[in-house]
Amino acid sequence: MLDTLIAGLLHGNAYALVAVGISLIFGVTNVVNFAHMSVFGLGAMCAWFFIADLRWPFWATLAVVVAVTGLTGLLINLLVVRPLARYLPIAALLATYAVAQILDSVSQWVFGPRVRPFPEVLPTDDLHIGLMRFGTSDVVMLALTIAVMAALGLYLKFGKSGRAIRATSQDPEAALQMGIPVGRIQHLSFVIASALGGVAGVFVALYTGTVSPTSGATAGLTAFVAATLGGLGSIPGAVIGGFVLGVAEAFGVSLFGGSVDDIIMFAILILVLLVRPGGLLGRVPVLAPEPMTGTFLGRGRPIRLGRWGLVAVLAVGGVVIPVLGSRTFLTIGTQVLIYAIIGAGFTVTAGQSGVIALGQAGPIALGAYASALLALLAHWPFWVSLPVGGLVAAVGASVLGSALWRVKGHYISIATLGMGIVTVAILRVAEPLTRGVYGLYGIPTPHIGGLALDTPLAFYLIDFLVLVGTLAVVVRLRSSHLGRVMSAVGSDEVAAYASGIRVRDYKALAFAVSAFFAGVGGALLAHQYTYIDPDLFGLTMSLLVLTIVVLGGVNVPFGAVIGSIVLIGALEVFRVTPQLRVILYGLALILVVRFRPGGAWVRRA
Amino acid sequence: MTETQAATAQTVAGTAIPPLLSVRGLRRTFAGLAAVDAVSFDVAPGEVVSIIGPNGSGKTTTLNLVTGAIPADAGEILLDGRRIDRLDPARIAEAGIARTFQNGRVFGALSVADNVAVGLHTTLRAGRPARRLSTWFLLRWIPLLAELAVALVPTRAARREQARIEAAVAAELDRFGQRLAPRRDDFAYTLSYANRRRTEIARALAPRPRLLVLDEPTAGMNPSETAEVLDQLLQLKAEGQAILLVEHKIDLVMTVSDRVVVIDGGRVISEGRPDAVRRDPLVAEAYLGRRRGKA
Amino acid sequence: MTTLLRLADVNVYYGAFHVLRDVRLEVGAGEIVSLLGGNASGKSTTMKTILGLTRLRSGTITFDGVPVEHRSTPARVRAGIASVPEARRVFPQLTVDENLLAGAYTRKDRAGVAEDLERMREHFPRLAERRRQEAGTLSGGEQQMLAFARALMSRPRLICMDEPTMGLAPRLVDQVLDEIARLNRELGVAVLLVEQQAELALSIASRGYVLATGEIAVQGTADELLRDPRIQEAYLGRSTA
């Protein structure tokens, strides 16, 4: 009992260190910096490299980590956040999400992806109080955290630039009028926050004894939730959030086992956001001052295909490629088509209702598992389990997401990210049914009568027909009154509500429609791979879907096809390695958001 | 106080009909400071009432309270004798109040015509089957899914309704002559500031609201554009449209209003016919400040 | 009297919207000048342009004979222009003392800052009483005093004040104006006072400018302006309408 509490507090202080950085950055820049979780992972990997590989002493390593992560933070602000935050914070949020994926992949590339033991710098098991055992390492870590936190607290309270940071975070325009160089203060905050994140990464590695390039994605994400829980922008909130999550996680894991911590974490987050939409100590404005997405991602006029263009595209996609394409080409084609289906469906949520959902892998996984299980266990034919997979995804995502629609602004993106993770966590936990991490194999391929449709050509044709159907539905929806209403919601919630539109309901409906097509796409994937496991449906898949849609234009269903061809087809044809691929997704996302916010398939207005 | 104000409304309207909108003792505080305090006024059917006052006096907050955009801390708002102060903005819109916003909030991702069509959402019947269930927990999915089904496979009634909407949109755009009609298919984000305001007004007027609430409709317009808006407001007034107006351009207010409510520091300091308000020394003071000896 | 601030033919656009047209304006050293006009006449934009928060399309701004229109806001503060922003904008979760120190950000002389902090406490005893209290918990009048004191902490030669009486009770309005006059008299700091309450503002100013739809419509000494019927018009509309 007591040692669970201590374990929770130890974890909690690392979360708090990272969360403080996230809140600090949000305070002075108004940007949710997803890259922060990777900075945390980078700190851990750096420490491993200097201690295990170069045999540096611990203290020197800590100094290097502070320097490396601080510099990384500065670069993130200089190159990504600052140029974008001027347009709209949501653009910067998207870009930092991409930076996070890039940093993790670079780290995997440089250090190799495996999980490795972290050297025991200090004894971990040499002390005890009564029956409880712990190590010098724990004591040093706790003392260091307290020292760092105290130093930060004193600096913010009494330091000249610390005070300027607080002033900027409370009112940047007034701060500027006092002669405070707000831009430099933002740089400074990024450096401080990132250095804290790096140090926390080292601590967590020390505590858990293992380290991997993606450790930031799990522990960093918890810190992220902690900052959100405490109220973005509030430093004391971040500390409280960190400890609350650390302790809740420790007890949850000791009661239910390790696989539930994601679920517990996001359940707490959603509950808190429902009661206090700005987090425990945060504030949200009474009335949204400006639309979050409408004016940024909606710009540009989609290029029209025209009747002959349409015929030509249908002929090339439906006849020329199937007839002339090699097996490899057609196999790549099926991937392109499936992601185009998912992406085209996603434009309803991301474009029309203006919700930048970061966890679309969740409904994809639901559809894949539902269809696979119906085929495996109940022996349903593919043609029935496919649409049912879509329906299960729509219903499941709607149930899991039902609490999201009251949440506002940046919080909704964070909550959808969590929803995607929770969905996969549930699939992992529901082991008797889903076989957990072992995954499902032997998923039957489609049949017509006795004819097995298991060739690349057959898959390609099935996917092509489903894509044509998806585009028809989405385009029809857009041109209907309902479509206009959904677009109104995405353009300006306050004005839509005043026009008699129940904003939350239409967001929920848009999300359900997108989830349906995500589920259908997932089902197609499952029956063509014949094997699925939870790891397939991670953050990378969510990032990919988002990037495809942003690249093609969030308001352009056909753009998803272009995005898919570029991001899957081209990268597959050039045999790009998976890690480099994530880096390219991230770069594409950043560049599009920066230079062509309306997407590739639009004319500049 | 309450009775005398109700009486004013009746005499202004000339007959003993009850007020269309009735606001009683409205109060809203932000961080402990009262932005609106004990504000009461009426709008009779067909009447144009303007709220004026210096910057920060609580005009826009009052409009936000009347339209439900922010909830009131205390007080009553009645439309046709029915309490609406606890309703959400969507239900208030359905009850017949349509509004515009201070800086012109249009739907940038939609064309001008679609912006106006969205304004007709509350009037849809065939396009939104079972819409009475819209406010119920979980059951709200029935009208939502039905609306989705009709959107994908329209019924004959829904198609007829759609044609009616197109006609209503065209009529609404015509109100603005050559200003909006040539731009009906342009995205709203490409519009000039003045055209955004016009689009917004068209969107608000399209459902034929019982009460039209306008927040500074001429802000950012030049004198000739302002004169145009004045003409349109007079036209609406002649059609019997009740309007609650917040506006800084005093000439316009004095010309178009039946009655003017002056607020300062969140409280009503004067109310009455435009010429009487203009002569009220309290009003001159609120705007110009009191005369005082040189310090 | 030497000219401290001079705006020459300043034009500012918001998008396609021409918000300031050829604005010319001067403030002499140690002078109180009021900038008047109705809502949305361009007063606040003029203020923001002087402080470097809004870019000008054409024209020049000289402060103490040096062109500053291309300088950043912090550089202008260092040069001696301080600001009392619209709606006061004190830092709500900073204490009174911390607000004052934030106002001295551009200064390097620690001893001088400490000295000025002490002077402000003497000058504004109410603030001294509440030095450890968060500024957000102060009353409107006290916040206004804090905003004045915060601006003075940079040792400015000109303070731009954007509607310091906005949203204050009438009793406090008098106090605030008396305070401005006193600061000007005792510290010799020049004040550019943006006000809606024309008659009050002119009661402490020596000269005034009236803005109407982005242009200087009338200018003159305070006495001339107080007698000018066009002022009444600019606010309350033509009485013949």
Structure characterization notes:
With 605 residues, chain A is mainly α. Chain A contains 25 helices and 10 strands. Helices cover 73% and strands 4% of the residues of chain A. In chain A, helix 19 crosses helix 20 (481-491). Chain B has 11 helices and 10 strands. Helix content of chain B is 39%, strand content 20%. Helices cover 39% and strands 27% of the residues of chain C. Chain C has a domain at 3-89 and 157-236: Rossmann fold. In chain C, the strands form 2 sheets. Chain C has a 6-stranded mixed beta sheet, with helices on both faces. A 4-stranded antiparallel beta sheet of chain C has the order 2-1-4-5, with helices on one face. Chain C starts with a strand and ends in a 5-residue tail after the last helix. The chains are: A mainly alpha (605), B alpha/beta (295), C alpha/beta (241). Chains A and B meet through helix 19, helix 20, helix 21 and helix 22 of A and helix 3, helix 4 and helix 5 of B.
Question: Brief description of this entry?
Answer:
With 605 residues, chain A is mainly alpha-helical.
Care to count the β-strands of chain C?
A: 10
* CATH-derived topology of the largest domain in chain B: Rossmann fold
Secondary structure class of chain B reads alpha/beta
The oligomeric state of the chains shown is: heterotrimer
Order of helices and strands of chain C: EEEHEEHEHHHHEHEHEEHH
In terms of topology, how is this protein built?
The complex is a heterotrimer of chains A (605), B (295) and C (241).
Chain A (H helix, E strand, L loop, with lengths): L1 H28 L6 H18 L4 H28 L3 H23 L4 E2 L9 E3 L2 E3 L1 H23 L1 H11 L1 H6 L4 H27 L1 E2 L3 H16 L4 H22 L4 H15 L18 H4 L3 E2 L3 H19 L2 H26 L8 H17 L4 H20 L8 H20 L1 H4 L5 E2 L5 E2 L2 E2 L3 H24 L1 H11 L1 H6 L4 H27 L1 E2 L6 H14 L6 H15 L4 H18 L6 E2 L2
Antiparallel strand pairs in A: 1-4, 2-3, 5-10, 6-9, 7-8
Helix pairs in contact in A: 1-5, 1-6, 1-8, 1-9, 1-10, 2-3, 2-4, 2-8, 2-9, 3-4, 3-8, 4-25, 5-6, 5-8, 6-8, 9-10, 9-11, 10-11, 11-17, 14-19, 14-20, 14-22, 14-23, 14-24, 15-16, 15-17, 15-22, 16-22, 19-20, 20-22, 23-24, 23-25
Chain B lengths: L1 H12 L7 E10 L2 E11 L4 E5 L6 H8 L7 E6 L2 E2 L5 H7 L1 E3 L12 H8 L21 H12 L3 H19 L18 H13 L5 E5 L7 H16 L3 E5 L3 H7 L2 E6 L2 E6 L1 H6 L1 H8 L7
Parallel strand pairs in B: 3-8, 3-9, 6-7, 7-8
Antiparallel strand pairs in B: 1-2, 1-4, 4-5, 9-10
Helix pairs in contact in B: 4-6, 4-7
Chain C lengths: L2 E12 L2 E12 L3 E5 L6 H9 L6 E6 L2 E2 L5 H7 L1 E4 L11 H8 L6 H14 L1 H5 L10 H13 L5 E5 L7 H18 L2 E6 L2 H7 L2 E6 L2 E7 H6 L1 H8 L5
Parallel strand pairs in C: 3-8, 3-9, 6-7, 7-8
Antiparallel strand pairs in C: 1-2, 1-4, 4-5, 9-10
Helix pairs in contact in C: 3-6, 6-7
